[in-house]
Amino acid sequence: MSRQRVRVDGRQLSVSNLEKVLFPEVSFTKAQVIDYYVRIAPVLLPHLSGRPVTFTRWPDGVEGPAFFEKNTARHAPDWVRKVTVPSPGSAKDREVLEMVVLETVADLAWAANLAALELHVPQWQVASKLQPALPDLLVLDLDPGPDAGIRECCEVAERLRDRLVDDGLDPVVKTSGSKGMQVYAPIRVTDREHPSRYARVLAQELSAETPDRVVWRMEKVLRPGKVLIDWSQNNPAKTTVAPYSLRARPDATVSTPIGWDEVDAVRGGGADPGELRFHTEEVLARVEEYGDLFDIADRTRARLPAV
């Protein structure tokens, strides 16, 4: 194993096997993964702020085995922020988890060196007493079934946007970096289960309006030709891939914030859905041109309607 010491954002970091190809289809190396996360840090870090990160690690690249890792603090250097949070039900035989919060460029470089290709975060931040605060984000995850794709997701995303705006919310949208899309809105709630209830009702209503195009239940037999609105991602125990995170797909795609005009261009303007599939250099260029299209901090944080 080849190792070397590098200095990132004032921190000394040991990195290894920089020449290892993690995305063989596009010859994308670990060095390029680290470089991407360092360069995208100014827009990525605000979306990780205060949120314990779940890693998806691919130590032998995307063609090898992978694993989710929540209990990440044991790997971390002293300078990475560590938090102890209650264990979600999916963590076997643990009452608490020792997790990390990525706050600096050096933190991102450290995670990338672990081949943590994907970064997943909850819809809540850690409160001052190191307990989960109330959710501050609503997410509607659009997952196309067989014979459906990004164009169908754009149609559903536009309908969701209209409903959210009617309810006083201020939504943003991003690609998942895989097959689908995610619509978010900043929210204020007094009950941590409120987002799940609201999202479920919304998904059920859209499914009832167009049962041939939208489904709200998970069963695979229901999904051909339809878009699943996965409302369950609002469960406080669940996480969603962060904006600007790489995805472990053969061509090294990125979960990319997009404008509603881009959604509309695909939905009704005849634009190629393939134009909403982005890679690292394209994402960096978009940020240079447009800034952060996922500007949650600058959007209205509205009270979620009662359900």
UniProtKB/TrEMBL annotation:
The segment(s) forming the DNA ligase D polymerase domain are 29-294
> Per the UniProt record, which EC number(s) apply here?
6.5.1.1
* InterPro entries linked to this entry: LigD_pol_dom, NHEJ_LigD
- Name the Gene Ontology molecular function terms of this record: DNA ligase (ATP) activity
Q: Which Pfam families match?
A: LigD_Prim-Pol (PF21686)
Keyword terms:
Ligase
Does Ligase appear among the keywords? yes
Enzyme class label:
ligase
The region annotated as signal peptide is none
Descriptive protein name: Non-homologous end-joining DNA ligase
